[in-house]
Design brief:
Shape: globular
Radius of gyration: 20 Å
Order of helices and strands: EEEEEHEEHEEEEHH
Strand content: 35-45%
Low-confidence stretches: none
Structural class: alpha+beta
Oligomer: single chain
Mean pLDDT: 95
Distance between the termini: 44 Å
């Protein structure tokens, strides 16, 4: 492993700060051959980490995914109402990730979570952002979910969709699921579903 103490940040300049913060860095870092890189410039989008939850009902053996408008997808000329996991940024002071995940489930899907199983933690785009996603699977009763949810104060307009395991597996295979968060979550569930249902007392 290379020595991280040799990474030297020589200059930092803020370029933009609103919902996200964009900063420009000048730095050098150690190379695999034993030398040091020349001074390089990197632009990084910085913001708090996020928690995300795949809503799963182990008794009904069904998944709930939310659907909402995403402007970035629209700018690429694709259908912008995308199917996702519940997710939210860590922007409440003093709130831990478990509480964040539970709160977002209620706000975005009207879902009460009775168990949370951690799936993984990953960087969403490490070349240009420091954002981390902590991904969970949350136990819920999908029969109690509303059809629509979201906070009006945050301009959220969310539809809740209920799917069988067979449906989400087919959606994964045909490319209907098009964001990393939900792809990782569904792949994990397909691999761990049998053990998870036993753990949660549904099999």
């Amino acid at each position: 492993m290379l020595d991280t103490t040799q990474v030297k940040v020589l200059e930092k300049q803020n370029l933009y700060k609103k919902f996200f913060s964009a900063d420009e860095y000048k730095l050098t870092y150690p190379l695999y051959n034993g030398g040091m890189s020349p001074i390089v410039t990197r632009e990084i989008i910085s913001h708090e980490g996020a928690a995300a939850v795949l809503l799963y009902d182990p008794v009904a053996d069904k998944v709930a995914l939310i659907e909402q408008f995403r402007f970035g997808i629209f700018l690429n000329g694709e259908y912008p109402w995308t199917i996702e996991c519940v997710a939210g940024m860590d922007d409440h002071a003093g709130e831990n990730l478990i509480d964040l995940a539970s709160r977002e489930c209620m706000e975005e899907a009207g879902a009460k979570i009775t168990e949370l199983e951690k799936i993984t933690r990953y960087y969403s785009s490490p070349g240009g952002s420091n954002e981390t996603i902590t991904l969970y699977c949350g136990k819920t009763d999908v029969s109690q979910l509303p059809q629509y949810a979201g906070l009006e104060s945050e301009n959220e307009d969310i539809k809740i969709n209920i799917y069988s395991i067979e449906q989400v597996e087919k959606m994964l295979q045909n490319g209907q699921l098009n964001n990393a968060m939900v792809i990782i979550a569904i792949q994990w569930l397909l691999l761990n579903r049998v053990q998870l249902r036993k753990k949660w007392g549904a099999a």
